Each structure stands twice: as C-alpha cells, then as structure tokens.
Amino acid sequence: MEAALIIFALMVLFAFLGLGAYATVKVVKATKRGVDRTITQARRTVEDTTLRAKSFGQVGVAGALAQLRLDLRTSMRSTQQALHDGVRVDASLRESITLFERLSAHGHELDDELKRLEQDPDRKRIADSLPDLRERTAKITQASDSLRWAARDRARRFAEDELSTLSAQIEVESDALRDWSRESVDHLAAAAAEWDAVQARAQASGSAQGHAQGGAQGQTPGQSSGRSSAAGGWGAEQQQPALNPAAPAPQYPWQKTRRPESTT
C-alpha cells in the first residue's frame, strides 16, 4: 500500500513538473517572438529614417536610390498590413494575399538590388540604370497600391451595404415604435369592452338565479311553518294561538289548597 502511494505521488510530481516545463517553454517562445518582433520593427524604423534622411539630404544617384527604396518599402508595407487586417473579416482576400506574396518576392529582390547599388562606387553606371530601376519600382508599387485600394474599396462597400441595411431596419423599428401608443389604446379599449360584456352577463345570470330562488322560497315557508309547529317552536315563526282556548279546570270543595313545603 505504501509503495502504491509513493508511486502515485511520484506520478503527480512528474505531471506537475511536465506542465511547468511546458508552460515555461511556451512563455519563452512567446517572449522570443515578442523580442524578435520588437527588434524587426526597430530595424525597419531605423532603415526608413535613414532612407528618408538620404532622400532629403543627398542629391544625385544616392538620393534617387534612397527615394526608390523608401517608396517601395512604404507601399509594400502598407499593402501587407491592409490585406492581413482585411482577411480577418473577409476570407475572400486570401487569394489577394497569395498574389501579394508573389509580388513581395519581386519587391524584396528589387530592394536588395537597390541596397547593393548604394554601395557601388560606379555612379555613372548606376545613373544609366536609374530609368529601368524607376520603371520596375513603379510597376511593383502600382500593383501593390492596386491591391491595397481594392481591398479598402471592398471593405468600404461592405460597410456601406451593412449600414444601408441597418438603416432600413431601424426605420422599420422606428415606425413600429411610433404606432405602439395607438395599438396599446386599441388593445386597452378592446379589453375594457370585453370586461364590461362579461360583467353584464354575470349580472344578468345573477338576476335570473335570484328570481328562481325567490319563487322556490315562496312555497317553502308554509311547509316549514307547519313542520316547526309540530316540532315545538324552534323556528323563526311563532305558533299562532287557538281560536277557542280550553276552559280552566273546575275547582271542587274537597280539593284543599296545597301548602308549600317547608324548607326546614
């Protein structure tokens, strides 16, 4: 018995240790993801700030490359955010996200190329390739902007349709609420009329029963008085005196007056 209890206690202990280890791993992974996300956002912020400073502070090839990278990154990031936010409420945007991922591959390739050209010392060759770089950047940003604005237009159209439907429902409900007072008065009037009819029927029925009971009672007193007289006078009516009352008994001389008995 003691060995079984020890084994059970060890199993419970190992279970708690396993759950603790699992929870620790989950917390560590979540913390690592949060740290990585923070580092990525900080790096992007620094790069964007640097590119913006280069585009405004430098002229020539360096400034043009920085502006192309800034335009490309801004457009792609905005479209990515819009699509991922929209797919939460509209599942049909998943296909758009697939197309954007294919477009992102070309965008990353162009951004890497522009980044390498920033370190290239041959400025003349870079200047000659700027028209082609601008055209490629324009194609990618236009495609990205098209996806982003299409997703926003779709979301706005759905919101407008929902608002129109909601407004129509509210108008119907408002009309129903305005008719509530008249409907209530009609219901109350109908209920009052029905109550009056019920009371009138009850009174008519009570009167009919009263007449019937009165006729029955008109025959009952005569019979009951006869019975009460014969029974000894417990009824409400008193026994009528006889028309010829009996004469008193005669007194004879030999009948002596009876003396009252002494109490001594």
From TrEMBL:
Residues 201-211, 218-246 have a biased composition (Low complexity). Residues 201-264 are annotated as: Disordered. It comes from the Bacteria. This is Secreted protein.
